[in-house]
Amino acid sequence: MSFKRARTLQTAGGAFTIDQEAEAEDTELIKANGQKYRKFLLERYASGLSTAADTCILAYLHTESGGRGTEDLGLDPDLATKHGAEHLRCHLAKEYEKPYVDYVAVPMVCKKSIGRVSVQHPTRVTSDMLRKELLALGLLGEGAKPDAKFVAEHLEADSEYMALYEGHPVAQKAFAEGFRREHVVPVSVYFDGVQYTKNENFLGFYMTNLRTGKQQLVWLLRLSELCSCGCRGWCSVFPLLEHFRRDMCFDHQDLRACIIDYKADWPAYIELCGFRTWSHNLHPCPICTVQKKDFLSVGTMTLYTCPEKLFDQTSYDEVVASSFRAARIAVPAGNPSVTR
Ligand SMILES: [Zn+2]
Ligand SMILES: [Zn+2]
Fold this sequence. Notes:
This protein is α+β, with helices and mostly antiparallel strands and 340 residues long. It has helices spanning 3-11, 20-46, 52-64, 77-95, 126-137, 148-154, 163-166, 169-176, 234-249, 266-273, 313-323, and strands at residues 101-108, 117-124, 184-195, 201-209, 214-222, 256-264. The radius of gyration is 29 Å and the shape is extended.
């Protein structure tokens, strides 16, 4: 019986009579709170706020003092320091499937290091995730004979993309090679910042299989760990994007993926493409040369035309040329430290 319930009963003047129904309710409550405690404990461990040893000890003491929900995670405090990490890995593996990841060398600024270091950073492999999805649907794999009606329903979503899918170079190449339509998957890409805690934000890169609507995480980067050489994080983002690009361009034997949609808000968009920001001193738009003061007057803007001069490759090259100046350093004749 919960303390609150006991006190209510007492103030109501009733004796402590425990009816069975109330007891069952309490068991449920204890169980639910045990699960909450487990979730809280694991979240702290996953975010690096508590060590494996602390997690095992807290779980152990919780269980020993009658708590529920962490029986399997507890480890005697004498053993926890040495075996905590292994113990958690072993028990959590039963609960969470380990995702298949590749490791990519990414320049980052880590808390423990001084300056920029190269870190082997995990990223999931998009083709692998799509393959698993198709296998689970019975559309791929040896002896897969999907029902024609099921395949037709599965492909129904394609009608929304019209020429984007049919005319996509990857799709056209795959069809020419004799790929079945259900093995050429239309994919959308999503990139955004995720606020996790007050001080910890992530950049997340996701992909969606547009036929099933299933969105999956490809990689995450901590904002605080992005390279800060002056690149606004581009050094860290680039190798992961490059890994994704290679995977998407690779001629996989069993499936192909064509990216036909790309979702990101403005900050994510400029981050992903390495474009200028809205606070740029020349013009805020990465595509045209609109002035800040005219920013809100849309004027004769349409999907195909823009009233301002476009910021194209030529204008970009001009900006670059005017930003760099060749400098000549005069060296006094006879200076022995300079070899000519
Ligand atoms: Zn950098
Ligand atoms: Zn513009």
